[in-house]
Specification:
The chain is an all-beta fold. It has no helices and six strands.
Length: 95
């Protein structure tokens, strides 16, 4: 299938706010598929670690090897209360 990944081994998020800064208590990452024992819709943000300034990573313990279609939704607020959210669709198909 075009644009499909062979596996998903990590989720990488880049975010920064130049003005007031990020309110990391509002950092939320949800998938519509299970990940490492977490049910679909569970907040995965506590599993992320800062790997570089402005970059957070979650290395999956068990790679996702088959996923016809899934979404990852990431949101965070800045300290002024403005919310930013992105939704990404991904597919995993072994060749």
């Amino acid at each position: 299938m075009a644009n499909a990944n062979e596996s998903v081994t990590r989720i990488l998020v880049g975010m920064h706010d130049y003005d007031s800064g990020l309110d990391m208590q509002t950092f939320i990452v949800k998938t519509d598929f299970p990940v490492d024992g977490a049910a679909a819709g569970e907040n995965l943000a506590p599993r992320f670690r800062s790997v570089n300034p402005g970059v957070w990573e979650y290395r999956l313990k068990t790679p996702v090897m088959n996923l016809p279609a899934g979404t990852v939704t990431v949101s965070v607020r800045d300290r002024q209360g403005n919310k930013t959210q992105i939704v990404r669709t991904l597919r995993v198909e072994r060749k």
